[in-house]
Structures are given as structure tokens and as C-alpha cells.
Amino acid sequence: MLKKTFVSKNKLEEIIAEYPTPFHLYDENGIRATAESLNRAFAWNRGFKEYFAVKATPNPEILKILREERCGVDCASLTELMLSRACGFSGEEIMFSSNNTPAEEFVYAKSLGAIINLDDISHIEFLENCAGIPKKICCRFNPGGSFKIHNYIMDKPGDAKYGMTGSQLREAFIKLREKGAEEFGLHAFLASNTLGGEYYAKLASVLFETALWLKNETGIYISFINLSGGVGIPYKPEDSPNNIAEIGESVRRVFEEILVPEGLGDVAIFTELGRFMLGPNGCLVSTVIHEKKIHKNYIGLDACAVNLMRPAMYGAYHHITVAGKEDSPPDHIYDVTGSLCENNDKFAVDRALPKIDIGDRLIIHDTGAHGFSMGYNYNGKLRSAEVLLQKDGSAKLIRRAETPEDYFRTLDITGVLEKMPNPNAPASKTMVFDVEEQVR
Q: Which residue of 37, 68, 242, 403 has the fewest CB atoms within a 10 Å radius of its CB?
């Protein structure tokens, strides 16, 4: 089975002529269409807002597009807060959902007027001491055990480090009210990358019932409920995509069954759909540079796990298209690899693909979320560029590729940076000697 790409072979070659591979490519039209579909699906809720998870794709050009589509941002660190502020987000356009949080991050989040989402009951006193308790605040719920739909275990919240128990949640809201909080929200994340459309309604029912229980137990009114993420994407071609309109409608039905009869019909619904929003609207573009035939057939790319960690880290499936060979039979079996000194540096194992030749362009699908953002510098490898395919079909560089100068910038090796050669030129013996002398 095939998955369609959002870029043609001719357009791809046009982009590569200006921006060498590897790079992550994003589709602006797809991003905007996805945001519009989400907003339509939840338009029945007057307070609805999508808080895009910055960790999924922390690029200012992407965040600006999402802000134009009326999205907020969900941040989990100081630098994500700083990036969001630089992109024009402010106040309650920002959710700060972190865990094991340093004091300076709480201080900065509060200074921005962000909605702070507390992960643990002990953080109440910690927040009060370092930044003060804001008037509007949220708490994260972990019901424990296993999260099931019918008889299928979707995930095990009881094994997760996030959130508070029910009894802690009750105590936390009472404490926060005593310390001056006036408006309260509820948050939970119970399963990841779900397909089938049932997850959000089930999660919503858990949170709606919890909000109602809290109101009856404490008299506290929950004014907003954050369903967080978990709505997945079809990484495999045989998977059926989630229908966001049907998901929105299923949440509406639960909302009207549980909250409306209890006088809670004006509760605002929030989401944090990083993967759903960006995943299919991005891909990793790479060039085949080697073929190796030993006990298996290996295709070596100019990209590696530095550019896309998910297959190495999780064994995650990402579909691969050989650009220009979409109609060729997948009659060859390959492991598609990078160049790290790690045997798990593979984008695909025993994958049926068309015959691949040196110089072919491979498109690795669904890297728009948790793709570039999970990059790292193991083996001294450098992170790739990010390119945006704009609405008018033109390509825009939205993050340049790293250079050796970037890699060495944080090291105190005086003189090396001044002597840094062109990274595209062959390394000289003199340069190697100079680096070694400086490090010694």
C-alpha cells in the first residue's frame, strides 16, 4: 500500500537544488487545513482553544502560522516559553504544562500571564514560594490503573509519572482556593497516538465526571477542561485516519450528557494536538549515498537518527516513498539506515520497496511532529535544515542546517572556531592536528 506525499518529485528536486538534503519539509496548506478542521469540529464549544504542543515542532514560522489559525501554545520548558513569547503569544494564549519544574520556569511562566498547569500537589507550596499563586490555575489528573476502551487497554496511567491522584486533586483545589486562586481548570493525558476515534470521548467522560465530583465535593467550579493530546495519526498506510469532525461530535454528546444537566454547560474545552496538527504535514527528505550487500541489503542515507529519532528509540514505523518510483513494484527488501555508530540507526527494517539506486530521493513520511524536535548531536552529527512549502508553492528556509561552528560553539577551545574550515571541503591533516592540540 502507498501513502501520498504532499510534494511532487519535480518540486522536490527544485527545492533540493537550493537546500541540500537532508531536511525536514513542512506543508503550509496542510497545516492550515488541519487547524481549520479542528476548529470546526469543536466550534460548538464557545471557549474552545487548541494549545499546540510546542515540543512537537518548535519552529517560529510554524508557530506563527498556528497563531494566525487562532491556536495557543502548550509549553513545558523555559525555552519553549521564550520562543512562544517571541512569536507573539502572551497571557492565556500560553499553557505551561511541565513536571519536576525548576523555580525559574514557574517565575517566568507567571510573568507572562500563562495558565500554569500543576503536575503535583507539592508544587502548590513550591509555586507559592517562588512566584505566588495566580488567580487562574489548572491541575493535572492521573486516575491510575489502566485506561481501557471496552476490553482494550490503551495505556497505563498508573505507570506514568504525570499528574495527581483523585484525592490529591481534591486537596489541591481546596488549598489553591485558600491561597487565592479563583478560576480552576482540569487536565489529563491518558493514552498516546490513538486511532479509532473513541479515545477523546472516553477521556472527556472521565474528566467531565471528575469535574462534577470536584464541584460536589468542594464547591469549586471547573471553568475549563484540557483534553490534551493523544489523537493519533495513521503512520502505516493500512491505518485509517481519525475523523476529527466525528471526534468533536462525540465529545459534544458526552458534554451534553454529563455537564449540561448539572449547570456546567459553559465549561471551555481545550486540546493539545501536536502530533495530529503537524505529523502528516511534514516529512524528512534524504538522499541515498550508499548501498551495502552482506547478510542483508542496506540502503545508506545522508540522514540518520539525529534527524529522526523515533524509529531508533521506539521502533516506530514511518512510511517511505522513493520519489519518482511511486508506481514501481516494491519487490526489493531493504534495511534503510543512517551513519551513526549504533545498530538501531535504521529508518526501516526488512522493508519492501522499489529497487533503490544511489542518488534516489527518499521521503520519510509523518515527521512533522516529534521529528526535528527530538534531534541530537551524537557522533558529532549535525541537525538538518527545516524548509516550509508555502501556500503559493514556493519554498522557504525556516531553519538552516547546523554547521561544525555551531557544534563547537559551546566548547572552550580557543582558536579552533577561527580556524574552522568550510564543512563542504575535505578535512586537512593540519586542521585535525589543530583541534587535537586545542582540546589537549
A: 68
Q: Find the domain containing 432 and state its range.
A: 404-439
C-alpha pair distances (Å), 332 with each of 287, 335, 352, 353 = 18, 10, 5, 5
Q: What does the pLDDT look like over 87-108, one tens digit per residue?
A: 999 999 999 999 999 999 999 9
Output the pLDDT for position 432: 38
Tens digits of residue pLDDT in 145-185: 666 554 444 456 767 788 999 999 999 999 999 999 999 99
Asked if residue 369 lies in contact with residue 332, where contact means CB atoms within 8 angstroms, the answer is no
CA–chain centroid gap for 8, Å, is: 25
Taking each continuous run of H as one helix and of E as one strand, the counts in the chain are 13, 19
Q: How far apart are the C-alpha atoms of 383 and 380, rounded to whole Å?
A: 10
Of 348, 370, 299, 394, which Cα lies nearest the Cα of 24? Answer: 370
**Of 272, 260, 174, 184, residue with least CA distance to 223:** 184
Helices 244-258 and 199-218 meet at what angle, rounded to 10?
A: 30
Query: What does the H/E/C string look like for 65-105?
Result: HHHHCCCEEEECCHHHHHHHHHCCCCHHHEEEECCCCCHHH
**Number of compact structural domains in the chain:** 2
Query: What share of residues in the chain are helix, strand, coil (percent, to 5)?
Result: 35, 25, 40
Is the model's pLDDT at 436 over the cut of 50?
no
pLDDT of residue 440: 41
**DSSP-derived 3-state class of residue 259:** coil
**pLDDT for the residue numbered 104:** 97
282 with 368: CB under 8 angstroms? yes
88 vs 77: CA distance, rounded Å: 17
Which of 255, 272, 289 is at the close of a domain? 272
Instruction: Over range 44-64, report the average pLDDT.
Output: 98
- Give the separation between CA 144 and CA 156, rounded to whole angstroms: 7
How many C-beta atoms surround the C-beta of residue 240 within 10 A?
Answer: 9
- 40 CB contacts (<8 Å, ≥6 apart)? 245, 248
Q: Give the CATH number for residue 248.
A: 3.20.20.10
Q: The pTM is what?
A: 0.91
Last residue within a domain, chosen from 214, 249, 272: 272
User: Residue 343 falls within a domain, yes or no?
Assistant: no
Residue for grid cell 593540519: 430
Torsion 296-300-303-304 (CA) sign? positive
